[in-house]
């Protein structure tokens, strides 16, 4: 059989067979590799499952709704802001068979849309028209139930504020793309919206909706009683600096911020700066006592108004006699306060107010924070006017923070909108001594007990405070008929826990106040009502005000030189 | 002999491939199941979000206040109405109390609710993409 070939022919055949074997080996190897891979795939899958599984496991429970903007809650966990997936209704006009019928049917479900409006939208030449954004689930269901072709839904995210106007200014609002553009929504925008590296984190504010509501309720009621153009109020913890309530009226609904004017969005508490009037006498008195410029037993002659550089400083409630320090404070004597501040001197006065944080822009976790307006010069005359709250404009936030420092034992604490832990608190700086702070508490109590702030009394809660009535400065002049009446208070005065501030913008007197519109008649009643409302919520135990122990704790010698037998 | 070997190997191949594909299909089915479960969870989460928002909205303080003033005889708490637990007097011990016979067995032993409780795990309401609540 075998052919015997010789020479070149045999050689060629040999080579050919070798090549064939080589090719066969290579192919066989490839097929073995393929087969192996095939078996491997059939057994273990593509090999990505492990990665997919670990991705699904690493992000907490199920990684689906975490891309949403995080929630904001109050100190007790009540929801203040959340993000909901809502359906938005759009139409494809080309696919709508009978626009008239559609419009008629749709108006039965969406009652805020008119038939004509729907028809005009459907008449457009585009093949995509929004009919209504952000439907409620019920509306969506009803529209679906109509079963009209050419109508479709698209899912959108909408920021929702269940409390509406209640927490408007502190909360702020977001734009259509869910970006915070005011309030804590803006300040904590990065935390709330999250990023690729960090997931979105919920925010717990220091606010308490119950207190916020009581504050807003009382302010809006008194605002309408006294026909004021605006009102503002806040409640602050003196030990932690937490703001429990912050209301500025008129306010707005953050669910639809576009419908409100700029005035409604103006935060009178933190952004508005005002000449606060007599409430500043608290700082003047504390400063004079702390620096030893005058003793508690000392006093000043307030018989004659002070004339200085063409100005006349006079009293609103003139006593025309020598007044002791407690009397100056409780009768709110401008002359006495001016003389007291003059004894301290402009330099020390300025340094003291700076320590109380009244001369710098305060720090708070919202972007709407106003800087105080300082006088261009600060000499003897300015010191005198600032001593009773004219010539220096500060925000109510700064005033309340300063008062908190005066009553809490002299520690200045930065205000905050975020819930704080009392144990971790570190006071920023000591402003006055604990002894002076104790005297100031008694003086503030005296104002409510016997002085100008009698209407701020809330039985059992030992309210102490100071009235402040200031004429509004408009265009460099004081307007006689426009007042800012405010009242700053703290309670309970034997161990102050909360500072409460209320302010009315341009209140008008009525028959009940005998035509008076000063703070003692207009702003003080708000404090009285408010504290008896929020006292139980804040778990403050009422005390027997007439009891000997309380009277002793709140005792302060007045040292009046008033003739006991009036000359009648 | 050679024929036997061939038959055995063919049967083996058939058996192994059948087993393999069975496993593969099972895995696919489970994965599908997991996906639908995950979607269900996310839908339920969304529903919870909506219900929470609704709950908070219905419990706004001003709504509660108007309801309370309409239906409840509650006014502001006066200071004399507040007391600590220590001030609450101990209740008077009534000797009659000890004559009440102790029941022989649990009084609710034979109790059956009028409408029977649903069997199986509790189903959450589900907000579907087609709208409405199931």
Automatic annotation (TrEMBL), chain A:
Cellular compartments annotated: Membrane
Domain called Penicillin-binding protein transpeptidase: residue spans: 233-518
GO biological process, any: cell wall organization
Residue stretches spanning the membrane: 20-43
SUPFAM superfamilies: beta-lactamase/transpeptidase-like, Penicillin binding protein dimerisation domain
Source organism, top-level taxon: Bacteria
Keyword Transmembrane helix in record: yes
Domain named Penicillin-binding protein dimerisation: residues: 66-199
Keywords: Carboxypeptidase, Hydrolase, Membrane, Protease, Transmembrane, Transmembrane helix
Any Pfam family matching the protein: PBP_dimer
Protein name: Penicillin-binding protein 2
GO (cellular component) term, any one: plasma membrane
InterPro entries associated with the record: Beta-lactam/transpept, Beta-lactam/transpept-like, PBP_dimer, PBP_dimer_sf, PCN-bd_Tpept
GO molecular function: carboxypeptidase activity; penicillin binding
Source species: Sneathiella litorea
From TrEMBL, chain B:
Alphabetically ordered keywords of this record: Coiled coil
Domain of life: Bacteria
Coiled coil: 20-54
Chain intervals for the UniProt region annotation (Disordered): 98-122
Keyword Coiled coil (UniProt): yes
Protein name: Cell division protein FtsL
